[in-house]
Amino acid sequence: RSKCEITEISKKSVLLKVLETSSQEEPTSKKIMAFGAIKKRDRLEFAIEKAVELDAWEICVFDADHSERSRLNEDRLQTQIVSAFKQSGRFYLPKLVIKRSLDEILEQYKEHSIQMAYLGEEEAGTPNQLTDSENLLLVGPEGGFSKREAELAKSKRTQFITLGKNRLRAET
């Protein structure tokens, strides 16, 4: 990142003088957040904005079994990511990934440490500090994850977590 001063402007170019530069190394721990598609567009955009602010390396949106929305405007979501990226002062722009199902997400990120926020699991623990180099956090849509999705996740070494006893809004 550089701080510059404009020294000359013409019709076809702008000449800058670099005043100072700063750099940041790529993070060693990469957080990937995956959301089941949320019905209301503004709520999904809010969730994506918060994921950027929480330093997500990648943001995935997928159609869960209980998702009520299947059409996503990828360009609009990318614009939301860029806007939140600029606002938060981050050095790395998160990547947007859109998949058709949880199955595809679990296959793509099978080498990651996976945690799933799931209410139906009695043995669900609290979220661990993300210490592995690559972590995937799965959050379901308004209707939560289906039993089929939970069984699939369990077969992929997923750790089930709870976000508390209270029922949360989808974007929270």
Brief digest:
The chain has one domain (27-161): 3-Layer(aba) Sandwich (Alpha/beta knot). The chain is 26% helix and 28% strand.
| Name of the CATH first level | Alpha Beta
CATH topology: Alpha/beta knot
Biggest β-sheet strands, sense, barrel:
6 strands, parallel
> What is the succession of H and E elements?
EEEHEHEHEEHE
User: Could you give the distance between the termini?
Assistant: 32 Å
Task: Describe it.
This protein is α/β, with parallel strands linked by helices and 172 residues long. The protein has a single domain (27-161), classed as Alpha/beta knot (3-Layer(aba) Sandwich). It has helices at 41-53, 74-88, 102-108, 147-155; strands at 2-9, 14-21, 30-36, 56-62, 95-99, 113-117, 134-139, 159-161. The strands form two sheets. A six-stranded parallel β-sheet has the order 5-4-3-7-6-8. The chain has a two-stranded antiparallel ribbon with strand order 1-2. Helix 1 (41-53) runs parallel beside helix 2. It is elongated, with a radius of gyration of 19 Å. The mean pLDDT is 80.
